[in-house]
Amino acid sequence: MEALIVRKLGDPTKPPSSDENSAIILSKNTEIPEITTSTSVRIKVAATSLNYANYLQVLGKYQEKATLPFIPGSDYSGIITDVGSAVSKFAVGDRVCSLANLGSFAQYLVADQSHLGLSSGSVFRRGNKEDLLEQL
Question: Taking the model in full, what pTM does it have?
């Protein structure tokens, strides 16, 4: 899978490259994360955002320090592609959104079902705009 990987702390405003001086690289062969517990689900990330906390993480100035290398990104939405054996709240194909400490700047991530919200088709409306999750 593809993922943005922070391999060293530095300026996140510079484009990802394979240059050894670049803080961020775009990896095209990162392993797809495995389901780690019976209540975990794997999500294909459809949308994420870049925010100030992510910027500070890459600089190494955020209050919670990530261990290098790491995949940045916190809030996301996506579609569940696999579920653990004890998952009871969600099924493959469900549209979900959540916050993660790290990892949403990748094509897939794994989260516990207790951390997810399910899109009902009306929960994420903003003004007269369509539900963003409906566009997945």
Answer: 0.83
